[in-house]
Amino acid sequence: MKHSILFPIILSLTIILSACAGGPNKAGIGAASGAAGGALLGQAIGHNTEATLIGAAVGSMLGYMVGNEMDKYDREQLNHVYERGVSGQTNAWRNPDNGNQYQVTPRPAYSNPTTHQPCRQAEIQATIDGKRETTYTTACRDSYGHWQLKN
Q1: Rounded to 10 degrees, what is the CA torsion of 39, 44, 47, 52?
Q2: Average pLDDT rounded to a whole number, residues 78-102
Q3: pLDDT band at residue 71 using 50, 70 and 90 as cut-offs
Q4: Average pLDDT of every residue of the chain
Q5: d(C-alpha 44, C-alpha 21), whole Å
Q6: Could you give the CA distance from residue 78 to residue 84 in angstroms, rounded to a whole number?
Q7: Which of 18, 74, 79, 117 could tie 70 with a disulfide, CB 3.0–4.6 Å?
Q8: Is 142 helix (H, G, I), strand (E, B) or coil?
Q9: Residues ≥6 apart with Cβ < 8 Å to 49
Q10: In this structure, what DSSP letter does residue 24 have?
Q11: What is the pTM of this model?
C-alpha cells in the first residue's frame, strides 16, 4: 500500500523538479520552496517518511502554482516586502491586471552563514482563481542590493 502511494508522489516530484532544472525561474523557485516547506510540515504532522514525501509533493505543486502566477507587479511588491516589511507584520496587495491577491508575512533578516548575504524568509498566502494557497520563500540580497529568491 505504501509503495502504491509513494510512487506517484515521487514521480510527480521528479517531473516538477526536472522541469525546474532548465534554469532559475519563478515557478521553479516556488516549487522548490514549496517542497521544502511542505516536507517540513509533513514531517511535523505525520512524523514519518510517507508524511514527509506527501508534504513535499503537495508543497511543490502549490509553490509551483504560486510562483508561476506572480508577474512583474507581484514580484515588485514581494521585493518591497523583503526590503521594508516589518517582521511578523502581514503586507497585502491585489494585482490590478489579474485579480490575484497576496498576503506576505516576512520574518526577521539574518546573515547567511556561508555567503554572509542578508537573507529573509516569508510566508506567502496567495488567492489565485479563487483558490487560497500558502507557500514559504527565502530571498537573499545579491551584490547589487537586489533580493533574489533562493531554491
Answers
A1: -10
A2: 93
A3: confident
A4: 73
A5: 28
A6: 10
A7: 74
A8: coil
A9: none
A10: -
A11: 0.55
Residue 92: other Cβ atoms inside 10 A? 12
Which residues, other chains included, contact 136 with Cβ-Cβ below 8 Å and sequence gap of 6+?
33, 34, 36, 37, 121, 122, 123, 124
pLDDT in tens, 98-144: 899 999 999 999 999 999 999 999 999 999 888 999 989 899 998 88
Q: Burial level of 93, CB count in 10 A (0-12/13-18/19+)?
A: middle
User: Beta 118-128 vs 101-106: how paired, if at all?
Assistant: antiparallel
Q: What is the DSSP code string of 103-125?
A: EEEEPPPEE-TTT--EEEEEEEE
For 62, the grid coordinates are 502549490
Read off the pLDDT of residues 6-17 as tens digits, 9 standing for 90 and up: 444 444 444 444
Cell of 99: 485579480
Q: What whole-number distance in Å separates Cα of residue 72 and Cα of residue 78? A: 10
Number of Cβ within a 10 Å radius of residue 33: 28
Measured CA to CA, the distance from residue 67 to residue 70 in angstroms comes to 6
- C-beta of residue 55 within 8 angstroms of C-beta of residue 42: yes
